[in-house]
Design a protein that fits this description.
It is a single chain. By secondary structure, this protein is α+β, with helices and mostly antiparallel strands. It is about 30% helix and about 20% strand.
Length: about 450
């Protein structure tokens, strides 16, 4: 029996840890998923159990390489960002994998920004809002001043994707997609580490940078392994591989993030105040992004609507788009254009007794949400962009997609579907090292939505 040639991808999320196998056409042929119990740090704050994660990666890889059905031709990694694993001189993990949601010490935050030009100036240089531990470089800064002995024993600090690679390769590398993602470490003006990194001695804690499409090491002597990518940047790769004309990727989940890999204009002070930031793509190019907390708001309002109208929690998934609700019942939203886009829509201020049905109220809610989404997406939009690809949860929501198409009548709005986009992106960058077939043209499924009657002014 001939084994099937595949690439193995470890895709590490906050909740689900996955091992996925893609064939030579980049079709998903096997998926394993695991949820690992969290542990706590020295303050009792919940965090990733790095020891359990390490063991799971080792065991899963051993099992799949000994599987008689598949021939592992390459391996790569994608994982969530803003998380460091610290390695000592003997190659062992030091301390916990701190949770980026942990509150940052106020006095250290004040000390840092006072030393390096103030919040606004510094945020503009590093293309990131002030986000505390979500600016992962600030985690090392905290260790230096709160736990100097631990800091002194760190031989290398690895972002999580690079640590997952290290588990199998025992090679330490830095990756530009992790360094360039709201870390406070990268200066987007000079396109190198920000000067504070050297001034605070952090530069000695970072490994050499390895290009995203390079081999970190051959595992088991024959399997080329990458150094891993930040998952948000990895999810953009299938689109950059498939489309050359400028586009916006609207990635929808808890956060709805508008990504423009074709906008290299520096962030303005106003854009930063509206929660814009920049990523670095796997090609080491700037990706301008704006964020909206719309998925979270949808989750909360779905509960409220279900309770008020006595419907199941997921009743919104059965609602068909009905333009008459928009024309007859929907009242305009008030959009405060200079407000941060993380704020909730106007719908929370509306009286649900004004609506005769769940369907009418839901259309109003999505209308309000789209008003904010338009403002958020326009922050990174340029005249050259003629297409918006929507992936994630809202891409399957007909009401959302129709109203988004109405909001951008002169653009092509597509619901896009990519199976495991982050993992697929991590696979695609390794293409030249394991797969001599031409990249397939059907890795993204698209459904076009056209505007019917432009109701947005």
């Amino acid at each position: 029996m001939n084994k099937q040639n595949v690439i193995a991808i470890f895709d590490i999320g906050k909740t689900n840890k996955k091992l996925l196998l893609f064939d030579e056409q980049y079709k998903l042929v096997q998926e394993q998923s695991e949820q690992l119990a969290e542990t706590t740090d020295e303050d009792g704050f919940a965090c990733e159990d790095v020891q359990a994660l390490t063991q799971w990666v080792k065991n899963s890889f051993d099992a799949i390489t000994n599987n008689g059905q598949f021939e592992i031709k390459a391996v790569n990694f994608s994982a969530y960002g803003a998380s460091f694993v610290y390695i000592d001189a003997a190659g062992k993990v030091i301390g916990p994998l701190y949770n980026y949601l942990k509150e940052y010490p106020g006095y250290l935050k004040e000390q840092f920004y006072k030393s390096y030009g103030g919040e606004t100036t510094f945020a503009k240089q590093t293309a990131s809002p002030v986000l505390g531990n979500l600016n992962s470089g600030m985690q090392l800064y905290r260790l230096k001043y709160q736990q100097p002995e631990t800091f002194a024993h760190i031989a290398v600090a690895l972002h999580l994707p690079q640590y997952i690679s290290y588990i199998l390769t025992r090679k330490t590398y830095t990756d530009i997609t992790s360094i360039g993602c709201h870390t406070n470490l990268f200066d987007f003006n000079s396109h190198q580490y920000h000067p504070w990194v050297k001034q605070e001695g952090l530069d000695t804690k970072f490994a050499a940078t390895l290009p995203c499409n390079s081999i970190a090491r051959f595992v088991n002597k024959t399997i080329p392994a990458g150094a891993g990518l930040h998952d948000s940047s990895a999810a953009l790769i299938p689109y950059l591989a498939a489309f050359q004309e400028p586009f916006i990727l609207l990635s929808t989940g808890t956060w709805c993030i508008s990504l423009n890999a074709f906008n290299d204009e520096p962030l303005s002070k106003e854009e930063l105040h509206q929660d814009c930031l920049c990523y670095l793509s796997y090609q080491d190019k700037m990706v301008k992004a704006s964020r909206l907390f719309a998925g979270y708001e949808h989750e909360q309002q779905a509960k409220i609507l279900a309770g008020h109208f006595n419907q199941p929690l997921n009743h919104f998934s059965t609602v068909q788009y009905n333009p008459s609700f928009i024309k007859n019942n929907t009242t305009p939203s008030i959009v405060v254009t200079n407000a941060a886009m993380v704020s909730a829509s106007r719908f929370g201020q509306r009286d649900l007794n004004d609506f005769q049905s769940y369907e009418a109220a839901y259309h109003q809610f999505i209308f309000d949400l789209i008003q904010q989404q338009v403002q958020s997406t326009r922050l990174v939009l340029q005249d050259t962009v003629k297409r918006i690809f929507v992936d994630g949860g809202f891409s399957k929501n007909a009401v959302y997609m129709h109203l988004l198409a109405n909001a951008f009548p002169h653009m092509e709005i597509f619901a896009a579907s990519v199976a495991q986009a982050s993992a697929l992106g991590a696979a695609l960058v390794m293409h030249a090292h394991w797969n001599n077939k031409t990249l397939p043209s059907d890795i993204i499924e698209l459904k076009l939505y056209t505007h019917s009657n432009n109701i947005f002014l």
